UniProtKB/TrEMBL annotation:
This is 15706_t:CDS:1. GO terms for cellular component: cytoplasm. Pfam families: Kelch_KLHDC2_KLHL20_DRC7 (PF24681). It comes from Cetraspora pellucida. The lineage of its organism: Eukaryota, Fungi, Fungi incertae sedis, Mucoromycota, Glomeromycotina. InterPro entries: Kelch-typ_b-propeller, KLHDC3-like. GO terms for molecular function: chromatin binding.
Amino acid sequence: MASNNKLFYLDVSIPFTIYDESLMPWADLSSIVGAINRTSSSAYIDKTSIFFIGGYYSVNSPSINKFDTATQQWSTPSISGSIPLSSNLKYAPCVSLGNKIYIYGGNASLSAMNKLNTSSLLWSILSYTITSSKTQGYSATLLNDSILYIGGTNQLAFNGWNCPNKTFNLMKEDISDVSLIALDILAFTWLVPNISNTGGPQQVLRWHSSTMIGAYVLIAFGYLFPTVDIRTTTSDIFLLDVSRVDNYRWVTSYEPDKTLQPIPSTLFTQPTTPQ
């Protein structure tokens, strides 16, 4: 784990282009003292506070710390309750509903749903009847009052030569697949969106961020896999205009006032092969 306490944000209230990442409206807050170096952690925004939870961090560091965006200060909340083991809170994204944070599973492959109340700063464990063996590396999305979990694994490895054979073979099979698919959350079917041009990632991209901002999806950073045995970090930024659901477009300019258009009756084409 490299030592890196960088904190920065992208100002999406103003237009920008992605031709040169260094000219985008980034704001660097790394000079503010108090940050704890973390990787594979979760982050949750509560009004003016950002909670950083779990991940890999130095010995004796707290499992949670908080950044106040109004005062621009770091702090360490005093947490009580059924506090999860720090070794569990890795590779597990969190979902927030009101003043509650939900984190399922984690690095130890335990099927536990942990809940943090950000008002009382109290951890608790929820009891439930449905569990998943895919306890890390998944995506978690809030749909109304439910959480949709997609993908994941029960173990993670960072290098092809350290991967179990099954993981390595999967990586080998899809190394040329850079397609984009979408999930229709009404019918719960996988669909291939119509993208009218080129301009997205030309190599397999993993461990990147994908954020919906107004009428755009901003895809940033991650690792490129030019071959199965090689991975390289990338600072590439991609911008997908999704304002028209029947005609997505890769673009290089962001306009904050752009809005989503009404959804037509026919949205996507069905995949030719199962996903």
